[in-house]
């Protein structure tokens, strides 16, 4: 939540987009529109993007101090 407080609306929008996309993927699997194997690379890419964005923000914040 500290990251959300630091970056405000931008972080909130990013969190909503990520949560919304995971909800839509879950609905697609639940309604059997896509298979789980089809979206595994997409989930890996999302996780990689979120983790790398966290470390970039942390590095930028550390250099400002």
Largest beta-sheet characterization: none
State the helicity in percent bands.
over 70%
Strand content: under 5%
Give the SSE string: HH
Q: List the uncertain runs.
A: none
Taking all Cα atoms into account, the compactness measure Rg is: 15 Å
How many strands in all?
Answer: 0
Mean pLDDT: 78
How far apart are the first and last residues' alpha carbons, in Å?
20 Å
The number of domains is 1
Shape verdict? elongated
Helix count from the secondary structure assignment: 2
Keywords: Membrane, Transmembrane, Transmembrane helix
Word description of this protein:
The protein is built from 2 helices and no strands. The protein is mostly helical and 65 residues long. The chain has one domain. Helix 1 runs antiparallel to helix 2. The longest helix has 29 residues, at 2-30. It is elongated, with a radius of gyration of 15 Å. The mean pLDDT is 78.
């Amino acid at each position: 939540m500290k990251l959300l407080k630091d970056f405000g609306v931008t972080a909130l929008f990013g969190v909503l987009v990520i949560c919304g996309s995971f909800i839509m993927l879950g609905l697609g699997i639940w309604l059997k529109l896509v298979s789980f194997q089809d979206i595994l690379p997409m989930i890996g890419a999302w996780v990689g993007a979120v983790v790398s964005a966290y470390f970039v923000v942390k590095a930028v914040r550390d250099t400002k101090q």
